[in-house]
Design goal:
Elements: H1 2-24, E1 31-33, E2 40-42, H2 43-59, E3 64-67, E4 81-88, H3 90-95, E5 101-108, E6 111-119, E7 124-129, E8 133-136, E9 139-140, E10 153-156, H4 162-176, E11 181-183, H5 188-196, E12 202-206, H6 210-222, E13 226-234, E14 237-245, H7 247-261
Parallel strand pairs: 3-4, 10-11, 10-12
Antiparallel strand pairs: 1-2, 4-5, 5-6, 6-7, 7-8, 8-9, 12-14, 13-14
The chain binds D-MYO-inositol-1-phosphate.
């Protein structure tokens, strides 16, 4: 069964990626804003989500689906639910920066079962199956061997609201004095996939949504990494923080988060 689900997720993510590349050639895209003036959604995000939901619900009509752009959310009756971010990194996409991806996760009663993150710009597909492993076109994925925060390259991201961003910026400034360096590429699912591939040693972000992290976290876990989610207070509100990385870097990030900033 998991082979069928992987085929469905990979083929669908690849087709959505091609659709997004095609839309990116257009001179004009309709863009609206969501949670704040800096949080965009374009007709390309919506078209990619439509393609993904149509494919998944046609192949698996009993499954549930939750998509970032909210076009076809349904709970289903099979016990399986698909979490879909049709275009993670919309701001990059709209600026022509090739750092965005398609993220698809299939969850069952025990948690994430299949995770696929597709980067159409580099033609890379990162895939994981719970208990089986994680791989991309070039073979099995392994997290880095980094052991100490001061030698870790850590990726993170920022929310769209100004108040949250202010607090996130202060946390990032603190971490900058403790880690090798920070990266903010603008697509959380891709950050996680790159962490699984050892391109980053660790990742954390406060305020993500399940469609941003579900596939990527499974890929990190199956690449020998460690992941967790914890509630923290950010700008006076309880918010979830997602952490991932090589095992010792993940643990050092948790220690930093608990001890220094929360
Ligand atoms: C965003 C990206 C970004 C992260 C934001 C997300 P979107 O997703 O993953 O890296 O920092 O928190 O909302 O809006 O481009 O799908």
């Amino acid at each position: 069964m998991s082979d069928e689900l992987v085929d469905l997720a990979v083929t669908t993510a690849r087709d959505a990626g091609q659709l997004l590349l095609d839309y990116a050639q257009r001179r004009h895209l309709d863009v609206e804003t969501k949670t704040s003036a800096t949080d965009p959604v374009s007709e390309a995000d919506r078209a990619a989500e439509r393609l993904i939901t149509d494919r998944i619900l046609t192949a698996r009509p009993e499954d549930g689906i939750v998509g970032e752009e909210d076009q076809a959310n349904r709970s289903g009756s099979s016990g399986r639910v698909w979490l879909v971010d049709p275009l993670d990194g919309t701001v990059n996409y709209l600026y022509g920066i090739p750092a965005w991806c398609v993220s698809i996760c299939c969850r069952d009663e025990e948690g994430a079962l299949i995770g696929v993150v597709h980067d159409p710009n580099r033609d890379e597909v990162f895939t994981a199956v719970r208990g089986v492993g994680a791989w991309s076109g070039s073979g099995p994925l392994h997290v880095s061997t980094a052991g100490a925060l001061e030698e870790a390259l850590v990726a993170t991201g920022f929310s769209y609201g100004a108040e949250r961003r202010g607090a996130q910026g202060r946390w990032a400034a603190d971490l900058l004095t403790r880690a090798r360096d920070l990266r903010r590429f603008g697509a959380a699912a891709l950050d996680l996939a790159w962490t699984a591939a050892g391109r980053f040693d660790g990742f954390y972000e406060v305020g993500l949504h399940p469609w941003d992290y579900a596939a990527g976290m499974l890929i990190v876990d199956e690449a020998g990494g460690r992941t967790s989610r914890r509630d923290v207070e950010l700008a006076g509100e309880p918010v979830e923080c997602v952490l991932a990385g090589a095992p010792r870097i993940h643990d050092a990030l948790v220690e930093w988060l608990v001890g220094e900033v929360s």
